[in-house]
Write a sequence for this structure.
């Protein structure tokens, strides 16, 4: 049991340094069948993902449902055991740490969940929920847990009087603030947020996005924000990773990626986002992808996007394109990228 | 095409005797209240609008604004239980709220049909897609032979773009992907060629690329059949994509109503401004901050007096307290623009000034 006081006086990460490094990360969920429960296949949810998260930045992860973004998030906080690959946090390999060995690290890595209704125990008061990390980690606070919790509630835009209330007494936006307060309790370095605002109404969504932004500035947090909404990701991220069927197909700085996306999938994804301006309806060119995302049980060979891609050639069916850097800090896995910078 | 009238009443229209006008769908002073142990929930409180054939109306609002309750009210799906529905709904010259439930049942599915948000829960998991479509068809065409109905189901699946419809017709809902299920539900809704199609959040559960496909499909089918469409959504982007007219709802009432171009280029209500400003947009450079609407939507049991939006409105102080006490009537924005109506106590001059100085730069 540790007896440190909060905030923990750990070494503050230096901005721009790699906080989290993910390399060739794989997660396959086995499909079993029959009397002997023999494995007959696997859902290849995450299939070789690599990226680095730098201290102080926000990495946005976008993709359609079934692309493996949530699984990736859960692997990062080690709620799931990776099948292969490595995760390094502050230079230390945490890929296969046991639950016990992982526990001290939970102070530094926290998660915010999508659904503020199911992620809070309905039978616990807000005080118990937000105070749980202190109890679980055996952290002593200067003025007692109650005071610390009340400070956290205030930090997240709730009132300290909410301490004794239950989750059902709060609206969706307020519940999400409770979830954020809980994640912040032990002053983590990295927060993985899985669809933090997708369950909220637009006017409330903006409040929570601003709160996350303020907290990042105040506490020097690093975020990995997973979302399907490209507009939200554009607003919150410094860098963006686009996922398709378990792979990162494009990774780059926000402005570079949104101004001139390289991967045809990113181009199509962005063109499909409805824009609240009826005048633009006629002007813009929309690329309609046909069909659905193929099943991750049996993903297409080589480039996984070739079945829906309008630029697909024979090579796309034969050779998997590597993730290569076409612009400074902007990587893409495609044989025939869009908006390619002219050589020289 | 001559643009139809959109003029809406003041929200206190007196009950008329006959069909109010030539509009295909005319909703007048619709109120839907629910008795609960905590009090009376005023889910819809005096809604008035009209819609012509060939037009698409987008009803926008946050959760709890009464938009889904409105659609179920038009479909006559509130009859049983504790709902109290008053007002008038005229569909092609027939009044539905006070009509015989049996008559409404005959119209439902045939004259008006609905697409729900979640096709997995709206479809029966136990019956094949084809059987469910066939059933919807044969209810209204009892003389049709089973085989003909089956052919009709295949034809409908083909029309909504399902590959190999003759094979997929025997599949069960769980064998379809989300987008295909939504297509199948559209096929089911359209099997009787309804004149009014109500789509309640038809694309909310779908990914953007599939959402684009479904919106295109709804638009094409509307063009083909000339039916009237009501789209209910919380996403202003979806509305801009598909709607001719927009109705912004808040706390069960209409805040602003008008042609889509007008509402997006010259929005008049502070709530509409708030919605537009709080959305992050893909086509916009990052700003430092989003501009949220402060506070939370009100409880429909204790709707604030006066303008229901006043506790969250930044400009309520400019109305000399009228916003806190007096319900603002829905009135035309100005004489040049009679179709664009707004329920707000701010003077047109104030609105114009606030919009151009405060709001427009942030959009």
């Amino acid at each position: 049991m540790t007896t440190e006081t909060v905030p923990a006086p750990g070494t503050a990460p230096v901005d721009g340094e790699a906080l989290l490094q993910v390399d060739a990360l794989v997660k396959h969920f086995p499909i079993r069948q029959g009397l002997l429960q023999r494995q007959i296949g696997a859902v290849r949810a995450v299939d070789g993902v690599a990226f680095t998260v730098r201290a102080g930045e926000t990495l946005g992860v976008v993709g359609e449902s079934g692309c493996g973004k949530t699984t990736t998030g859960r692997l990062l906080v080690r709620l799931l055991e990776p099948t292969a690959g490595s995760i390094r946090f502050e230079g230390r390999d945490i890929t296969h740490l046991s639950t016990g060995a992982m526990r001290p690290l939970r102070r530094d890595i926290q998660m915010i969940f999508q659904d503020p209704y199911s992620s809070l125990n309905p039978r616990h008061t807000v005080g118990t929920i937000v105070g749980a990390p202190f109890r679980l980690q055996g952290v002593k606070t200067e003025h007692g847990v109650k005071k610390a919790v009340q400070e956290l509630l205030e930090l997240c835009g709730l009132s300290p009087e909410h301490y004794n209330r239950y989750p059902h007494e709060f609206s969706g936006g307020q519940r999400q603030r409770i979830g954020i307060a809980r994640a912040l309790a032990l002053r983590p370095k990295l927060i993985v947020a899985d669809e933090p605002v997708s369950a909220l109404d637009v006017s409330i969504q903006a409040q929570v996005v601003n709160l996350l932004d303020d907290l990042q500035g105040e506490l020097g947090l690093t975020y990995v924000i997973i979302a399907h909404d490209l507009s939200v990701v554009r607003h919150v991220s410094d860098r963006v990773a686009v996922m398709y069927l378990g792979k990162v197909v494009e990774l780059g700085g926000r402005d570079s990626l949104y101004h001139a996306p390289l991967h045809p999938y990113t181009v199509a994804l962005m063109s499909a986002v409805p824009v609240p301006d009826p005048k633009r309806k006629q002007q813009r060119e929309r690329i309609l992808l046909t069909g659905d995302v193929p099943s991750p049980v049996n993903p297409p060979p080589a480039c996984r996007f070739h079945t829906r891609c309008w630029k697909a050639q024979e090579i796309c069916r034969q050779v998997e394109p590597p993730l290569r850097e076409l612009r400074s800090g902007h990587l893409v896995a495609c044989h025939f990228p869009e908006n390619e910078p002219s050589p020289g | 095409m001559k643009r139809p009238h959109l003029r809406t009443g003041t929200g206190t229209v007196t009950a008329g005797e006959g069909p109010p006008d030539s509009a295909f769908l005319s909703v007048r002073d619709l109120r839907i209240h629910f008795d609960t142990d905590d009090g009376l929930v005023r889910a819809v409180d005096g809604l008035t609008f009209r819609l012509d054939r060939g037009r698409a109306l987008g009803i926008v609002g946050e959760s709890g604004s009464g938009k889904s309750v409105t659609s179920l009210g038009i479909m006559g799906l509130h009859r049983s239980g504790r709902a109290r529905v008053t007002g008038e709904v005229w569909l092609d010259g027939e009044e539905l709220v006070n009509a015989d439930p049996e008559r409404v049942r005959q119209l439902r599915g045939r004259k008006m049909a609905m697409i729900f948000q979640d096709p997995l829960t709206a479809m029966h998991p136990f019956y094949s897609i084809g059987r469910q479509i066939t059933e919807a068809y044969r209810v209204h065409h009892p003389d049709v032979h089973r085989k003909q109905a089956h052919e009709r189901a295949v034809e409908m699946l083909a029309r909504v773009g399902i590959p190999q419809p003759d094979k997929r017709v025997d599949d069960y809902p769980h064998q379809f992907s989300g987008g295909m299920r939504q297509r199948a539900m559209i096929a089911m809704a359209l099997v009787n060629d309804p004149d009014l199609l109500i789509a309640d959040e038809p694309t909310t559960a779908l990914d953007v690329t599939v959402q684009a496909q479904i919106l295109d499909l709804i638009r094409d089918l509307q063009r083909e059949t000339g039916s009237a469409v009501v789209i209910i959504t919380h996403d202003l982007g979806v509305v801009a994509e598909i709607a001719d007219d927009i109705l912004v709802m808040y706390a069960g009432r209409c805040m602003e109503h008008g042609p889509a171009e007008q509402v997006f280029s010259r929005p008049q209500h502070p709530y509409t401004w708030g919605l537009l400003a709080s959305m992050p947009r893909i086509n916009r450079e990052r700003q430092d901050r989003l501009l949220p609407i402060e506070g939370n939507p009100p409880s429909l049991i204790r709707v604030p007096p006066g303008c229901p939006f006043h506790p969250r409105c930044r400009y309520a102080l400019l109305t000399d307290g009228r916003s806190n006490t007096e319900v603002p009537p829905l009135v035309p924005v100005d004489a040049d623009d009679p179709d664009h109506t707004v329920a707000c106590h701010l003077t047109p001059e104030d609105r114009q000034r606030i919009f151009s100085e405060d709001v427009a730069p942030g959009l």
User: Anything to note?
Assistant: The first strand of chain B starts at residue 25 and ends at 36. Confidence is low (pLDDT under 50) at residues 1-16 of chain B. The two ends of chain B are 31 Å apart (CA to CA).
